[in-house]
Each structure stands twice: as structure tokens, then as C-alpha cells.
Amino acid sequence: MARLLSFLFIIFLPFIFPGQIHAHAFGQLYNLPVPFWLYLYGGAAAIIVSFLVIGYFFNKDSNLEKYPTVNLSKLGLFSTLTKPWFVGFLKLASVFLLFLTIACGLVGENNPTVNFNMTFFWVIFVLGFAYFVAIFGDLWTIVNPWKVLTDFIEKAFGKNLVGIIKYPKLLGYLPAFTFYFLFIWLELFGQTMPFSLSVVLLIYTLANAFGVVLIGRENWFKYCEFFSVFFRILGKISAVEARGGRFYLRVPFVGLLGGRADNFGLVIFILFMLSSTAFDGFKSTAVGAAAVRILVSFTGIFLGQGSFLAVQTAGVLGLLLSPLIFLYLYLMLLAFAKVLSGSTQPLKELALDFAFSLIPIAFVYNVAHYYTLILTEGWNMIRIISDPFGFGWNLFGTSGLATNPLIVSANIGWHLQVGIILVGHIAGVYLAHLVALRVFPSRKKALMSQLPMLVLMVMYTMIGLWILAQPIVGG
Amino acid sequence: MIGQGFLQQLRGISRQIAFLAYFVYILPSDMSLKFILYILGALILLGGLFFAFRPKTVQAPQSPVVTSESTTSANVANKVKTFELVVRDNKLAPGPSTLSVVQGDDVVIKIASDVNGEFHLHGYDKFVDLEKDATVELKFNANLSGRFPFELEDTKTDLGALEVNP
């Protein structure tokens, strides 16, 4: 009951916070659109590389499910990382940061450029920590402050939180997806300020508390807590692997090998990773802005032309539509692959099998679109930590530091964006091919199935590149 | 300008070397020569394609060169670009809202406003006070490339953007 109430409250959050459809949660992007020739090159390279990857596999047996690793534990640094005191310190720091973030918003200056919580949450955590996890592995599973608090409460009360009711497995990852949706809505339309951000985090903390009590900590953090699912997915890309208390260096993306989505909800979640970034970029293009206007006029018919409610509903509808468009492409091309390969597997099973090969593209979409924010806004953190509440403190002597957005030259920016999208594309095609070999009846049939998958990957990549190349309209 | 082209080539080459190094690293020791050649061929193909697609001159529109092209003369590329903006009723009066310049240009933005307020150019982080029924000027050198929105600071109204092309 309590969980239902908190869910309902969360569902109605979008209609409580005022604001028009605007650019980003926080921070300015200074990226110029990618020039046309580079966009064309990206597309051509994506297509060629896809054929090269498949061509390579044509006559070769691939045994890359086993991959080379380097044992890092020989380095002293890594043995420190597993010491209980260090892990304990990390957990404490994480909870402290959560409390600080909430406190700064509640009692500090309600000014995003001055208050600790906006820069910390949207830039350092949502972007910085996400990229950290993608490189070094899912640290969140250890430092998740809500999990740490749950552990603490369990120890304090001497009880294990196994839940009052059994988690209906049919729900799958729907709760996590719901939170993800709300999170993106908040990021794109919520116009958060320090105060409202703290309120949201408080509500989320309460939701965690209810959830853990209701369905037990294991299922809550596996299926429902948004960040846990998100970082777990990203962690699979990482170049560092932890096994049996030791750390190993490995090739990036190989963590995705041999795995599959365990639930269709996870497929939607992964597609939303892709589509939410695409949606954000898309609505700043001329085509996208026009589509938004049409959608707003449509909702205006029912809710009052130009009314706040019409605008918000249009935004929610558009955001909801975005993963469905990507899902449609995914399923349609998978169906072709199924037909070409003569597979008897149900389409749904194939969708689960291939889902992980979409993760590299989802990740590079995000990086290509947002990475500059870490540089332009992250620098401010040095100033902000000296005066987190905006009261005029100077704890570390850095509060006078001038705002100095580290603006990457447009040339470098463009090449990095296209380059990283290509890297994600290559990884995606490669993975899809390995999955096909595992899942389809024969090697020859697997190769035939790869043509539709190639089209899918190229389409996703071209959509990403196209968005980056469009002239930007509006703020 | 030579510096830029060279930098791009260097970037292209170093990227390819990094790519190659990456592949060499992940090669299990029994990998065949055929594989290495395949990768090399792929890289050469991609690299060649890159140089084929790249425009022969620098992307942004160049100012017409009066004398022979000299890389030491800074004045050849630097132009002074002046823009006039009119702020009325809390928004920009009709007219282009995207100002395009080339990196290195000196920019002058003249803003006429019907109210007092503050004009803020992001990225460059320039603030200028607007005066009712008067025109103020903002002058600076566009040394950073990118797209920089500007707004009316008090009402946080987006007015447009300055695009500095490299």
C-alpha cells in the first residue's frame, strides 16, 4: 500500500513541477553540430566496418568467448582496494555525500551555479560516476548509499529484510524502468533547482525504504532500484573485472559476451538508455522541434492549447514514444534475422539474446552527447566544495576560483564524438555476431542473419550521428 | 591554419596507432599473420576514407585573402564582426538569432533594449548591463570554438546563440 502510494506520488511529480520543455537539467552544452562531411564519413565508416567485422568471421572460428586478462592484483594499489577499511570508508563517504546533497538543497542557496547539489548530482554523479563505472566496473553495487543504509538498519535491528510480500517476478524490471523514466523526465523537463532536487532525492530515499521493507532488499536492488540496474548494465562494459577478490584487466565490452537479458523489461530499459539520449538531442533539431510543436498542439486539443498541462503531457508522451520507436526497429529487424536464419526460437527469446549487443551503442550515444558537460561544469566543483551551501564559506580556499568552463575546441569535439560512436558501433556489431553464432542453428545461417542486424546497428548509429550533425534550434 | 591541418592528421594517425596497439594487445599469441594484415588493411581503408571525405580546405568559410596566404599574419583571418540585437518585450525582435563567426574573429555585439536588464553570453561568460532605450556594446575575441547561447539573465530568457566555427 505504501509502495503504491509512493509510486502514485512519483507518477504525479511531473505535473507538480512547473516548467516549459527546455534543454537540460543543468549545465550548458557548447557543442557545435558535427559538420556534414564528418557525419557522412561516420556513416560510411560504420557500414564498411560492419562488413569488415562480418567478413572477418566468414571463414573463421571465433573463440573469443574466452578473453585474455591481466591480473592486476600484483599491484599494491589493488590489494588496498579490497581492504575492509577502505571499502568501509567508501560506503561511509557515499552515504555522507547523499546526505550532503540533500542538505545543501534544503537549507543552502537555491542557486544552481553556487549550490553543491546540482553540480554534484547531475555532473559528477550522473555523468562522471557513470563513466567511471563503465571503465572500472560496477562500484555502485558496493557503495550504493541506500544499500549501505539498508545494511546498517539490518545490523542495527538484527533482522534480515526479506520482504513482507514476495516480489511478483512478472513485474520484472518495470519498477526500475519507471524510475528511469521519471529520472529522465526530471532531467529534461523538471527544471530542477537545488531545493527541488533535494526533495526528489528525499522521496526516492523513502521509496527505497518502503521497497526494501515491502519486497526485501535482494529483489529491490535487483529489479527496482534504478541506479543499481543502470550501473550494473554499464559495469559490464568495463575494462576491469573483479573475480574472487582479485582485479583483472580485460578488453572493454567483453563483459557483455555470453550474457543475455533475463527479462523483456531489461530490453526496454536498455533501449531507453539509447532513446532518452536520442530524444534529448532530437528535440533540439529543427525536425524534432517541429514534432514537439505538433505534439503540443495535439495534447492542447484535450488539455487547452498552449497550457502548461498540454506541454508537460506532450513531453511525457514524446519521451514514452522514444524507446518504442527504437524497439520497433529492433524487433522488426530481428524478425528478418529470424526468417533469414530459419531459427525456431521465439522472437522474444531472440530479443533477450541480442539485447546486450545494444549496450555499447547506448553508452557511446550518452558519452558523445554529454561528455563535454563534465569538462565545462565539472571544473566548478573545485570552487563549490569550499562553499557547498553557498553561505560564503571558504573551507578549502578555492571558493574564489573563477568559472572556467573547459571548452573543448569544436574540431577535437567533433572527431571525439564521431570516433566514439564508431567504437560503440563496432563493439555492437561484433557482439551481435557472436550472439548469432551462439543462437542460430548453423554458422552459415548465423552469418545470413547478420545482414538485418547490420542494418539495425547502422540505423542506430546513423540516427545518433544525424542528431549530432543537425543545427541546433532553441536553447 | 597549417597547424590545424597538421593537428588533424596527427590526430588521425595517432588514433590509428592507438587502434592498432589496442588490437595487438588483445591478440592471443597464436593469432595468424592473416588477422594482423586484415586489421591493417581495415585501418588503411578507414584512414583513406577519412582523408577522402575531409574537405581540402579548413571547414569554416574563409575570409577572402587579399595578399598571399601567410600563416604568420594574424590579421588575415581575424575580422571584426559586428552584430546588432534588439531586445523588445523580453525577447529578441525578429532577425537572426544565431550569430556566426570564425574562431579568432573580434566580435562586437550591440544590444538595444527597451528595459534595464543583463545580457549573459554563456561559455565566454560575458555579462553586460542593458539600459532602457539605449544601446550597449559587448566586445571580445572569439578564441573558443563552439555554440554559445546568450540570454537575458534576469528572466533567464533564451535569446539566441553565438556559433564560433573553428
Task: Write out key terms for the chains shown.
heterodimer; A: 475 residues; mainly alpha; 3-stranded antiparallel sheet; B: 5-stranded mixed sheet; 4-stranded mixed sheet; 2 helices
Task: Note down, in words, how this protein is organized.
The complex is a heterodimer of chains A (475) and B (166). Chain A has 475 residues and is mostly helical. Chain A is 68% helix and 3% strand. Chain A has a 3-stranded antiparallel beta sheet with strand order 1-3-2, with no helix packed on it. In chain A, helix 4 packs antiparallel against helix 5, helix 4 packs across helix 9 and helix 18 packs antiparallel against helix 19. Chain B contains 2 helices and 9 strands. In chain B, a hairpin with a 4-residue loop joins strand 5 and strand 6. The chains are: A mainly alpha (475), B alpha+beta (166). Chains A and B meet through helix 2 and helix 18 of A and helix 1, helix 2, strand 8 and strand 9 of B.
Helix content of chain B: 25-40%
Oligomer: heterodimer
Structural class of chain B: alpha+beta
Largest sheet of chain B, in brief, is: 5 strands, mixed
Distance between the termini of chain A: 42 Å
β-sheet strand percentage of chain B: 25-35%
Question: What does the largest sheet of chain A look like?
Answer: 3 strands, antiparallel
Number of strands of chain A: 3
Strands of the largest sheet of chain A, in order across it? 1-3-2
* Count of individual helical segments of chain B: 2
The Rg value of chain A, from CA coordinates, equals: 23 Å
Percentage of residues assigned to helices of chain A: 55-70%
Q: If you average the pLDDT of chain A, what whole number results?
A: 88
The total count of helices of chain A amounts to: 19
Low-pLDDT residue spans of chain A: 13-23
Q: Which chain pair shows the most residues in contact?
A: A-B, 36 and 36 residues
The H/E string of chain B reads HHEEEEEEEEE
- List the strand order in the largest sheet of chain B: 3-9-8-5-6
Q: Roughly how many Å apart are the termini of chain B? A: 10 Å
